[in-house]
Amino acid sequence: MENEKDFLVSSFKSIGYELNNIQIKQFMRYYELLVEKNKVMNLTAITEYRDVVIKHFVDSVLSAKLIDIHRNMSMIDVGTGAGFPGIPLKILYPNLFVALLDSLNKRVKFLEEVIEDLKLCNIALIHGRAEDVAKEKVHRESYDLCVSRAVANLSTLSEYCIPFIKVGGNFISYKSSNSDEEIKNAEHAIKKLGCETEWIKNLDIPGADIERTFVCIKKIEKTPRKYPRRAGTPSKEPL
Which pLDDT belongs to residue 72? Predict the structure, then answer.
């Protein structure tokens, strides 16, 4: 049976990534911090080492197999929770600028500890609701890429996420494999927000017998200023 380090390395190799020694140490330390903090606050229901590697770390970076992530890109992870997918993507692409947004201060404090411990640079934490932060000039239409593994309906999630991306940028939503109807129903909201669905692709999570659906949404024009609507409205009344 492979030891923890070898399992991590082989899991990433199975999706085409060769981790260097720094990245190996960062992922292993991230796991330690996650399970330690999880004893006192609810960050994840998945705590077994191999499950975390596959269902959190590998799953988080699968989107990078489908979109070109280059050194000058800026990315925001909306509803990052325990740091997924933002921190694994940052570990894999150290030159990427990453902003992690979450509404719960306790989670943001945990992410502060992770960033400091892992010595991650060029990464920002934002405590707030997406509906409010997306109205701020410094964040509105400022990012090349937005990612989200949040479980909200895609219509609602689009209203949270699309205002953050520049015209020409992309929003990638991580969805389960049985999301066809949800994706179809979100088309109206996506168009209203100044975007179009560029592609929908399915990838297997190696070793998990789970298929992940990625929805890539392209920003083609500025989002009307009235979106996102005030806090709570996008989830109660999706576009």
Answer: 81
Q: Are strands 97-102 and 123-127 parallel, antiparallel or unpaired?
A: parallel
Query: Pick from 82, 78, 88: which is nearest to 45 by CA?
Result: 82
Is the Cα dihedral 224, 238, 192, 101 positive or negative?
Answer: positive
DSSP assignments along 108-148, one per residue: HHHHHHHHHHHT--SEEEEES-HHHHTTSTTTTT-EEEEEE
Residue 65 CA to residue 86 CA, distance in Å, equals: 15
- The answer to whether the predicted template modeling score (pTM) of the entire model surpasses 0.85 is yes
| Domain residue ranges in the chain | 4-236
Which pLDDT belongs to residue 161?
Answer: 97
d(CA 175, CA 182) in angstroms, rounded, equals: 10
What CATH fold (topology level) applies to the domain 4-236?
Rossmann fold (3.40.50)
Contact (CB, 8 A) for 78 and 150: yes
Tens-digit pLDDT profile for residues 169-208:
999 999 988 888 999 999 999 999 999 999 999 998 888 8
Contacts of 118 (CB under 8 A, 6+ apart): 26, 29, 30, 87, 91
**Containing H/E element for 47?**
none
Query: Cα(82)–Cα(103) distance, rounded to whole angstroms?
Result: 12
